[in-house]
Write a structure and sequence with these properties.
This protein is an alpha+beta fold and about 250 residues long. The protein has 3 domains: about 1-65, Orthogonal Bundle (434 Repressor (Amino-terminal Domain)), CATH 1.10.260; about 65-155, no CATH class; about 155-254, no CATH class. About 35% of the residues lie in helices and about 20% in strands. The protein is built from 11 helices and 11 strands. The chain has helices spanning about 5-15, 20-25, 30-35, 45-55, 60, 110-120, 125-135, 140-145, 145-150, 155-170, 185-190, and strands spanning about 80-85, 90-95, 100, 105, 180-185, 195, 200, 210-215, 225-230, 235-240, 245-254. A hairpin with a 3-residue loop joins strand 9 and strand 10 (about 235-240). The longest helix is centred in the middle third of the chain and has 14 residues, at about 155-170. The protein is globular and about 65 Å long. The relative contact order is 0.08.
Length: about 250
């Protein structure tokens, strides 16, 4: 499919008129019409804006869907899981879990391997096979090759430790001390909490990447604690398997 048809399909799916799309990317309606008719193609800067509007890669807009892997964890990249720069534009070298809002979320290769192993076991690897594969694969990726250049000198790890200390200081009954915070995409953990009037409310942004973890209750039972945090808040909840019947325990502004 060519760029014109792709733009028309994305615009229609998003419920945008040509006028509204033109406003979002600072061009005229006639320019949008020429793109969709195949008369012209958006320039590089406009393609970046369109990428942000539709949450797809520039390669997708040009009719060559992304066929890359995250240069931190090795996960195959596809539209919807691509990381974002500080200005909101997509960074097509990383996934949301490894790169969020211009920040690299992993500075310890062994920590990343620990997080990846359970997902790989679910895909048919044994734990040992997954560990060996990741130890061979990660050093070949650009982020780890250039870590001295791209790393933040431990600033993000220090921020995570500050969050861990704040969460543990809450002293929530039945919740064990948290030791690790992992990157979690909002759409995976944005649970609906029921209000007294029967309405449901969600507190997270599906497109953002947060820090969090799951913890077994010290008293046993079938409910687990979930912890989600970022620079602005700490959220603690409990839920059953697969996030069923979530209950909010605490929502605290930082």
């Amino acid at each position: 499919m060519d760029t014109g048809n792709i733009l028309r399909e994305l615009r229609t799916k998003a419920g945008l008129s040509q006028d509204l799309l033109a406003e979002k990317v600072f061009v005229t309606r006639q320019a949008v019409s020429r793109w969709e008719n195949g008369d012209t193609v958006p320039n590089t800067e406009t393609l970046k804006l369109l990428s942000g509007v539709f949450n797809v890669s520039i390669n997708t807009l040009l009719g060559t869907p992304i066929k890359q892997i995250c240069q931190c964890c090795g996960m195959p990249l596809e539209d919807g899981i691509i990381g974002r720069n500080k200005d909101g534009t997509l960074n097509e070298d990383y996934c949301k879990w490894c790169y969020a809002d211009g920040t690299y979320t992993y500075s310890d290769m062994d920590d990343l391997i620990r997080v990846c192993i359970p997902h790989m076991v679910g895909q048919g690897f044994t734990e040992e096979e997954a560990r060996v594969f990741m130890k061979q694969k990660l050093p070949q990726l650009d982020y780890w090759k250039r870590y001295d250049e791209l790393g933040d000198g431990g600033e993000f790890e220090a921020f995570k430790q500050t969050l861990i200390n704040e969460i543990n200081a809450l002293g929530i009954e039945g919740m064990p001390k948290i030791e690790k915070l992992n990157s979690l995409v909002g759409s995976y953990v944005n649970l609906p909490y029921r209000l007294p009037n029967g309405d449901e409310v969600r507190f997270l942004d599906d497109s953002k990447t947060y820090l969090g973890n799951q913890l077994e209750c010290e008293f046993g039972g079938d409910r687990r604690f979930g912890v989600i945090a970022d620079m602005d808040f700490i959220l603690v909840c409990t839920y059953e398997d697969d996030g069923k019947n979530p209950e909010l325990v605490l929502y605290k502004k930082r």
